Amino acid sequence: MLALAAATACTAVAAPKIKPPKAIVMIYADDLGYGDIGCYGAKGIPTPSIDKLAKQGVRFTDAYSTTSVCTPSRYALFTGEYPWRKEGTGILPGDAALIIDTKKPTLPKMLKSHGYKTYMVGKWHLGLGEKGKKIDWNKEIAPGPNQIGFDESFIFAATGDRVPCVILEDGKVRNLDPNDPIEVSYKHNFPGLPNGKDNKDQLKLMWSHGHNQAIINGIGRIGFMKGGKSALWKDEENAQVITDKAVEYINKSAKAKEPFFLMFATHDIHVPRCPGKEFEGKSQHGVRGDVTVELDYCVRRITEALQKAGLEKDTLLIFSSDNGPVLDDGYRDFAVRDNATHSPAGPFRAGKYSILEGGSRIPFIVKWPAVVKPGMTSKALFNQMDLGASLEQLLDPGKANSFRDSENVMPAMLGKSAKGRDYHVINSTGKALAIRHGKWKFIPAGVAIRDGINGGSAKMSKSPEGGSLFDLEKDPKELNNVASQHPDICEQLKAKLQEIRQRPETKADLVDLLPLDD
Questions:
Q1: Residue 5 has what DSSP assignment?
Q2: What torsion, rounded to 10 degrees, do the Cα atoms 157, 68, 55, 302 define?
Q3: Taking the mean position of all CA atoms in its chain, how far away is CA 67?
Q4: Which residue, of 148, 183, 222, 359, is most buried by count of CB atoms within 10 Å of its CB?
């Protein structure tokens, strides 16, 4: 019989009384699958720096991003709230308004209130500016990262495959010539400018689906863009550029002897995959493997900077990914061909966009030499959005949880407890939800199931009448639906999912619930 313990917004286990870290660094990779790095089983893709983190800390095997796509996972990480509770948290266009309420608690706000300088570097993809107002890319843009708790920011507005292809520093486009203003449209091209559909001769990387609008740096993008020539990025240099900025922030804070939080959100290994020349051919699995090697290099630069600054011992360093892997995600970069025998999702099935385990079961590593014993592996059930409540309890033990859905699992994060959260609600895209408890995973009837690791050619089905129940210990690939054998467990998990969905923001404020099925 399934034990249904009451799930609250804060786990009952108290955080250990530990001296706070001098630095908190989160390295957040993009589209990196559970099986894409050596310490999780990858072969032919050398990732010695990431593997070293695992040897020096705790490697989690039951950790999840909140969603199997990027924007909602990032929303949940910063807000401590399941993204499916809020409309408009799907994959955003590059000109979307900020989707985080600047009046609500956020992870960087909480850390800032405890004396940490806060830095945001890399991929943002949570919108900029006010809802209902068109973004003027030639002026300072707000609200954005600096209005939800970051002291300084150095970001891509959205993704590498979306316009505008520029970096914003503290709300202003970097290197912009005021005599060459930027215009962005997600509806129409600008007169006289080429596009990827009609001007294929100007492409150095051919698209496979979508990605055939504006041509920037010889690559077709989503959306159209005009102007800003001096501000345009070069894809092959982006990893170096953002890593340089992250190292600069580390050195600045170390010199000032200020505690800091660095959110380093890489572009690798998202499309378009354009590694620097020094990384070309460095893996046995084509360009997707090569950008993973580049990612590992960025990790090495960050860890070396911490070491040189004398901060390694007292830094809580977290490494993870925003969702599971994808091969063909819009460009003909031969990722499918070159994947060969590699298993990007490890022992799990499917990948990005899917409710199946490959969609959101991700690498998660915690290193903190002053506190965490090296070489540990944990099976604790963990959701990335638990960082909010966990860090809050570490810094202020006994404080009421500021975050709606985040849970305090700091003892598990530090390898001091085998217990993580009791329940985890899994989300793919839109309103498709499933639930984890112990070894069981339940997908309600009618929920869309994407089976495959290619963005444009995955097989689609729906969870059957009665739902889908999987024993993940025996069946990690979710091939054997045992719902008919355990109807009591199905009913209880279905009820628990509904209970979590109905959890109020406050006692007096019930949210407007989304439909359960997709």
A1: P
A2: 0
A3: 8
A4: 359
Give the phi and the psi of residue 438 in degrees, each rounded to 5.
60, -130
Tokens of 204: 């150095």
Of 221, 217, 230, 220, nearest in space to 182 by CA: 230
Rounded distance, CA 349 to CA 458, Å?
A: 12
CB 32 within 8 A of CB 325: yes
> In this structure, what is the dihedral angle of CA atoms 182, 264, 71, 283, given to the nearest 10 degrees?
100
CA torsion sign, 420 to 424 to 427 to 428? positive
Taking alpha carbons only, the member of 473, 514, 163 closest to residue 348 is 473
SS3 390: helix
Rounded to the nearest 5°, which phi and psi values hold at 435?
A: -140, 140
| Cβ–Cβ < 8 Å for 377, 58 | yes
Residues sharing a CB contact under 8 Å with residue 278, sequence separation 6 or more, in sequence order: none
Q: How far is CA 338 from CA 209, 282, 431, 458, in A?
A: 19, 13, 33, 18
Q: Strands, DSSP E only, in 417-494?
A: 423-427, 433-437, 440-443, 448-451, 459-462, 468-471
Q: What is the pLDDT along the chain (518 residues), one digit of tens a residue?
A: 344 333 333 444 444 479 999 999 999 999 999 999 999 999 999 999 999 999 999 999 999 999 999 999 999 999 999 999 999 999 999 999 999 999 999 999 999 999 999 999 999 999 999 999 999 999 999 999 999 999 999 999 999 999 999 999 999 999 999 999 999 999 999 999 999 999 999 999 999 999 999 999 999 999 999 999 999 999 999 999 999 999 999 999 999 999 999 999 999 999 999 999 999 999 999 999 999 999 999 999 999 999 999 999 999 999 999 999 999 999 999 999 999 999 999 999 999 999 999 999 999 999 999 999 999 999 999 999 999 999 999 999 999 999 999 999 999 999 999 999 999 999 998 789 999 999 999 999 999 999 989 866 678 999 999 999 999 999 999 999 999 999 999 999 999 999 999 887 743 333 333 333 32
The whole-angstrom separation of Cα 233 and Cα 58 is 36
The contacts of residue 460 (CB under 8 Å, 6+ apart) are: 448, 449, 450, 451
What does the block give as tokens for 129? 């500016």
Residue type, position 334, single letter: F
CA–CA separation, 159 and 369 (whole Å): 33
Q: Give dist(CA 257, CA 249) in Å, integer.
A: 12
Q: Within 13 A of 170's CA, how many CA atoms are on the CB side?
A: 4
Q: In 3D, which of 141, 103, 137 has the Cα closest to residue 224?
A: 137
